[in-house]
Amino acid sequence: MNSDRDIQISFLEWVKSKNPETKFADELGALLAISKDSAYRRMRGDTLLTFNEIRKISQHFGASLDTFFNQSKDTVLFHKKMLNVNYGYIDFLKSVLQAVKMIGQKESYHMTYIAKDIPPFHYFRYPELSRFKSYFWMRTILKEPTLASKPFSSNLISQEMMDICSAIWKAYQEVPSLEIWSDETFNITLRQIEYSYDTGALNHDQFQMLIDEVRQLLSILCVEAEEGIKKHPDPSQRVLSGKFDLYYNEIEIGDNTVFFSMDDRRMVMKTYNMLNLLSTTDPVFCENIEKYIKTILQKSVPISSSSEKERLKFFNAMHAKVNEFEKRMG
Fold first, then answer.
1. What confidence score (pLDDT) does residue 242 get?
2. Is it true that domain 4-69 has CATH number 1.10.260?
3. What is the torsion angle, in degrees rounded to the nearest 10, for the CA atoms of residue 20, residue 26, residue 32 and residue 34?
4. By C-alpha distance, which of 61, 217, 58, 7 is closest to 132?
5. What is the C-alpha to C-alpha distance for residues 292 and 309, in angstroms, rounded to an integer?
6. HEC string of the chain?
7. Residues paired with 81 in a beta bridge
8. pLDDT tier at 303 (50, 70, 90 boundaries)?
9. Partners of 268 in the beta sheet?
10. Among the listed ranges 18-22, 109-113, 185-189, 193-197, which one has the minimum average pLDDT value?
């Protein structure tokens, strides 16, 4: 791979291999504003790419030249999405939906979620929890000025947001996934409810409604763990459901880490500052995370399927925590 032509052919083949779901020549032509024939000429190396075209391809497809040339094994390229900087809350929801839909494209695709907080997909099947989590994130994390002095109200969350949240849950329901929880995983939402109630953002009826939905969530999660599949809150709804494996780890989890396995491809997403996202397909980093997951699973207790004793022990403890929390706050 010595000539410019050879390098270009290899580079575009590499980019294409990382985006197998796309009609690459069509997308390349649209991106560079050239004909399909011109796109093929670049893919064959008959026409050399300009620096500007390479920049567009790298940014659009998330294709790091540093990763391609493997110039540094100590450097990892992350793609960042920062709320209030380069995208807003609705954009955040759309990016989550896009990622989940990507994993749902093939039965062989799989998601592993190491959860510091309950994965948001679970909240999004319950209307008040969906609205409350969106309200809390926008008001306290994003400092949305329109919510600064407003107590929680269902009408503060737009129908567009609710529709996307619902679409996220429906997409996630079909995805085979494994989740690793700790005791702290469940505490975060209770602390958010407590903070909102203590500061007057929630009234008693709203507090009670959220607690009721939290109990419903725990109950359906227990059934999902027992049956090993995801379920709709309404038992009359018959939908395609993905495999669900749940593990309990006694060690507190430091952050939310999502690992995507897509045949021979891997991708990692990590959250920071609550909602901001970092993602990478760097092979060495993804391999490291995959090994970390295997290690943490060895130190975790499976509470899905046949693990009845551990499952009941875990969910009984979670229900007791909610009861104690409600009594203390009442």
1. 85
2. yes
3. 150
4. 217
5. 27
6. CCCHHHHHHHHHHHHHHCCCCCCHHHHHHHHHCCCHHHHHHHHHCCCCCCHHHHHHHHHHHCCCHHHHHCCCCCCCCCEEECECCCECHHHHHHHHHHHHHHHCCCCCCEEEEECCCCCHHHHCCCHHHHHHHHHHHHHHHCCCHHHCCCCCCHHHCCHHHHHHHHHHHHHHHCCCEEEEECHHHHHHHHHHHHHHHHCCCCCHHHHHHHHHHHHHHHHHHHHHHHHCECCCCCCCCCCCCCEEEEEECCCCCCCCEEEEEECCEEEEEEEECCCEEEEECCHHHHHHHHHHHHHHHHCCEECCCCCHHHHHHHHHHHHHHHHHHHHHHC
7. 277
8. very high
9. 259, 280
10. 18-22
> Percent of the chain having pLDDT more than 70?
92
Residue 317 C-beta-side C-alpha neighbours within 13 Å: 13
- Write out the residue limits of the CATH 1.10.260 domain(s) in the chain: 4-69
- Beta 257-262 vs 265-272: how paired, if at all? antiparallel
Above 90 in pLDDT, residue 320? Answer: yes
Q: CA of 216: how far to CAs of 40, 167, 221, 224, in Å?
A: 54, 20, 8, 12
Query: For 261-274, what is each residue's pLDDT tens digit?
Result: 988 888 898 887 77
- pLDDT tens readout for residues 82-124: 776 556 889 889 888 988 888 887 878 889 999 988 998 999 9
Residue 123: burial class (beta carbons within 10 Å; 0-12, 13-18, 19+): buried
User: What pLDDT is stored for residue 165 in this prediction?
Assistant: 94
The per-residue pLDDT for 283 is 84
On the CB side of 115, CA atoms within 13 Å amount to 26
Mean pLDDT computed over 42-70: 83
